[in-house]
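Translate structure to sequence.
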């Protein structure tokens, strides 16, 4: 999810085509430089002139009409009701995102699921859930993990396409997991969070046959075309992958 840090990290310039998983260039989105305003109580700094979270994570909704037609009604483009509120992961609590913040689908029938994308929220846990439930936010992840105790909320069904990666091709084939905290504050990355998140990722990998390695469990920073840096240098990937593999 990554909003600007209290000490913003460098961001790569340039535009991208969120419908193209290769990250090829596309015409600039006028909304990409509009900036964002942190909500009341948000301790993250206001955004600068880099592309907004909304435009990056949305991953191509501007082309939604064309996609909807091409997929012959399988995808959903911004109205209607959410799917049944049954969690996909037994330990999770259902905290549904607004149906304006993801695309209804029927994965893995419509798209294979072969990636897990790790995010850091740059928000508190409760503010993250609130943002995902805001129909104007235009972004959401499948899961959010709390720092203090590893509690997990599910916001989008796994069958549906969450707008979390900022690249449509990656959105269609991934599960997005947000982690409460800030990339420059490692104290948020608690043992409880690591263990709970790793168990969730392991279950997702087992369900979809995803290899439990760094080629298939990636950070948001690794998604082509995005300017995000999360989960950042303080995320312990060695520890995390070992936990995912039960080591």
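Result:
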């Amino acid at each position: 999810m990554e909003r600007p840090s209290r000490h913003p990290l460098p961001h790569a310039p340039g535009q991208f085509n969120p419908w193209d998983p290769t990250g090829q260039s596309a015409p600039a989105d006028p909304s990409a430089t509009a900036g964002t305003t942190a909500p009341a109580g948000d301790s993250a700094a206001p955004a600068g002139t880099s592309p907004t979270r909304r435009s990056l994570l949305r991953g191509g909704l501007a082309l939604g009409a064309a996609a909807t037609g091409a997929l012959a009604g399988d995808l959903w483009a911004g109205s209607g009701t959410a799917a049944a509120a049954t969690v996909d992961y037994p330990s999770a609590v259902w905290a549904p995102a607004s149906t304006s913040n993801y695309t209804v689908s029927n994965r893995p029938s419509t798209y294979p699921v072969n990636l897990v994308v790790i995010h850091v929220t740059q928000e508190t846990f409760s503010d993250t859930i609130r943002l995902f439930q805001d129909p104007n936010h235009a972004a959401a992840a499948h899961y959010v993990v709390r720092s203090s105790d590893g509690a997990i909320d599910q916001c989008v069904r796994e069958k549906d396409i969450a707008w979390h990666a900022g690249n449509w091709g990656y959105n269609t084939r991934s599960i997005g997991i947000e982690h409460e905290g800030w990339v420059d504050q490692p104290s948020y990355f608690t043992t409880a969070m690591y263990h709970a998140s790793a168990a969730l990722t392991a279950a997702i990998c087992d369900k979809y046959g995803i290899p439990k390695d760094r080629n298939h469990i990636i950070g948001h920073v690794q998604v082509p075309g995005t300017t995000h840096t999360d989960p950042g240098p303080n995320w312990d990937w060695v520890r995390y992958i070992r936990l995912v593999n039960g080591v």
